[in-house]
Design a protein that fits this description.
The chain is mainly alpha-helical and 434 residues long. It folds into two domains: 134 residues, no CATH class; 218 residues, MetI-like (MetI-like fold, Orthogonal Bundle). The protein contains 18 helices and three strands. The protein has a three-stranded antiparallel β-sheet with strand order 2-1-3. The radius of gyration is 32 Å and the shape is elongated. The two termini are 61 Å apart.
Length: 434
């Protein structure tokens, strides 16, 4: 006898119908299009921003220079012939450059016309001549061909930022000065040359003499203090909280405070540094050591959070295997867990340092906004940093500082990109896979 089994028809689920399947695929395509569109829009906006900055800042890497046959008159430089450094340093070298200009244009007469002629060259020309004479006193009494910087007004005119068709009353470069510049251009005595001063000099009131080297050195010293304080303290704090501390309400409170500190505005840390390091401890104002302390406080929560995440990512089997062969808790942490977590720790540290490199607000509160001419030589010397230097130049009224500001932004962006690229390389180089 054969049993017959009743077949129950299976109703198709609503979600598996062709129409629902097409809707789901269409939604996925739309989502993909939205994502690609967002990425493209962000890339276009970023390219436009960087292009605008590069377009403004490219001219700052070049400076208008004028060739002059300058006679280094001994009667002006060293009238007594002693070759004493103090005598050579105190001589009026700017007068020698003005004489060379008057010799170049012998038809110029009258006090006002000669003053206008002298405005073609930078007021810092004398300092450059003094530097050369101090380096080689044998130049005294000789006539040499020297390329000297033009003034910022002439530089702006040569770069096309001032139109010669504009009324003379609206131009800082007058018609007679334009005529002299045309003569220099025709004879090949005026050229746009790469400006090494931008990378080797410190700040100056004159745009053509201003550079970023002082700010770069100040940033380096400040970040060195920041790294020396925040990295060991942050790593040790993360190790304790993640590997040794008991889970109770006190450690929970500490973790909450660390997370909150990572979200505190940076200017609050500047106020803390002003109240503590300057007012109470009397530390030197506008010094890299104080800036480094403030930035270390700001960077510390970021490093702790990144280090804890890296420690958590280490598989528990590593700890268990080390404990199983008789290692102590400290040996497990230092010999096994920390080396495996170090790539993530280093990545978080570099990203935190990159953030500290771009900070301005906390450093303004401790006085690093001061006008610093000398390049700092130690951690306690007055100094400024690159973001603050950009802020100072952006607030300057001279037209030439606009290009200097954009060029300094490009240099700062290059440092930030390099630091983030280093973080990626370190992660890929030392990352362990289990």
């Amino acid at each position: 006898m054969t049993e017959t089994t009743a077949t129950i028809p299976v109703q198709p689920r609503r979600g598996s119908s062709p129409r629902r399947l097409r809707q789901r695929h269409a939604a996925e395509r739309r989502f993909r299009i939205y994502g690609i569109s967002a990425i493209v829009l962000a890339a276009v906006v970023l390219a436009a921003l960087l292009g605008s900055i590069a377009n403004r800042g490219a001219s700052a890497f070049f400076q208008t220079q004028i060739a002059l046959d300058i006679y280094l008159d001994p009667e002006v430089i060293d009238p007594e012939g002693t070759r004493a450094p103090d005598t050579l340093r105190s001589a009026n070298y700017q007068t020698l450059a003005k004489r060379a200009l008057e010799t170049r244009f012998p038809d110029v007469s009258g006090r006002s016309a000669k003053r206008a002629l002298a405005r073609l060259i930078s007021s810092g020309t004398g300092f450059e001549l003094r530097r050369r004479v101090l380096a080689d006193p044998n130049l005294i009494g000789t006539t040499g061909r020297y390329w000297v910087k033009s003034s910022d007004d002439v530089d702006s005119f040569i770069k096309g930022k001032v139109s010669r068709e504009a009324p003379e009353s609206d131009r800082r470069v007058k018609d007679n000065e334009i005529a002299w510049l045309d003569v220099l251009v025709a004879t090949g005595d005026l050229e746009l040359r790469f400006d090494t001063t931008f990378f080797t000099a410190s700040d100056s009131r004159e745009p053509e003499q201003a550079g970023i080297w002082g700010a770069v050195v100040g940033s380096f010293l400040t970040l060195l203090v920041t790294l020396g304080l925040s990295f060991p303290v942050g790593v040790l704090a993360a190790l304790y909280l993640e590997e040794f501390a008991k889970k109770n309400r006190w450690t929970d409170l500490i973790e909450v405070n660390i997370n909150n500190l990572a979200a505190v505005p940076s200017i609050v840390f500047g106020l803390l540094g002003l109240a503590m390091f300057l007012s109470i401890f009397g530390m030197p104002r506008s010094a890299p050591v104080v800036g480094g302390l403030v930035l270390a406080l700001m960077t510390l929560p970021t490093i702790i959070i990144a280090a804890r995440a890296a420690l958590t990512a280490v598989p528990p089997s590593v700890r268990e295997a080390a404990l199983a062969i008789g290692a102590s808790k400290l040996q497990v942490t230092l010999h096994h867990v920390l080396p495996l977590a170090m790539p993530g720790v280093m990545t978080g540290t570099i990203i935190g340092m990159a953030r500290a490199l771009g900070e301005t607000a906390p450093l303004l509160m401790i006085g690093m906004v001061a006008f610093i001419v000398d390049i700092p030589g130690s951690f306690t010397d007055p100094a400024t940093v690159l973001p603050v230097q950009i802020y100072l130049w952006a607030d300057s009224p001279e037209r030439a500082f606009v290009a200097k500001t954009s060029a300094a932004i490009l240099v700062l962006l290059a440092f930030l990109v390099a630091m983030n690229a280093l973080a990626v390389v370190l992660r890929r180089r030392f990352e362990q896979r289990w």
